[in-house]
Amino acid sequence: MSNLNKLDFAPLGTAGSGYHRWVRDVCQHLKAYGILDMILEPSQDVLTVEEAQALEANRAALEANKAKAIILMTRHMDDSLQYEYMNKKDPRRLWVSLKERFANVRNSLLLDLEVRWHSLSFCDFKSVLDYNSKALHIKSLMELCGKEIIDAMLIEKTLSTFPVSALMVTKNYRIDVTA
Question: What Pfam families does this protein's entry cite (predicted)?
């Protein structure tokens, strides 16, 4: 079941660390193909006779769309996940199973991100660009997990981790900001 074709986005790994990005990518691709409704909750409305007949007439198209959705989803999954969910033939059921398994990854990811945020230090990077890139990356992941990092917190983090030799610069900046 190895993915021999070029992938459109990163596959979902067995640990689920990229689950939320994978969900976004799958939804966008299914929407682009016009088959997003294959994974959405079915409507609770009662079908009229005409709607039931139209649905039956379009059964082949519905099955083809389900197959397209399953192919897209499984193609962008790790090989071991593909084997584990091989018996899921309905895209909605696969979607729900993956959600039950990986949707709580945010909680464990947030703990790791908080540790990374607290250990982030300006002195550990060779350039301002490298530090800024890492800080913004952690900030965006924390926001994904529901914890907001405002600009003032980011600035304070940067200033508090400046080297001792730049202590006067940080004091001057803080005086200018508070004035």
Answer: Retrotran_gag_2 (PF14223)
25 vs 161: CA distance, rounded Å: 36
pTM: 0.61
The span from the CA of 125 to the CA of 131, in Å, is 6
Query: What distance lies between CA 81 and its chain's CA centroid?
Result: 17
Take residue 48 and report the two structure tokens written for it. 């009229």
- Type and span of the H or E element at 106: helix 105-119
* pLDDT tens digits, one per residue of 70-129: 999 999 999 999 999 999 999 999 999 998 888 777 777 788 889 999 999 988 999 989
Q: Please state, in angstroms and rounded to a whole number, the distance separating the CA atoms of residues 27 and 40.
A: 10
Locate the domains of the chain by residue range: 19-102, 105-178
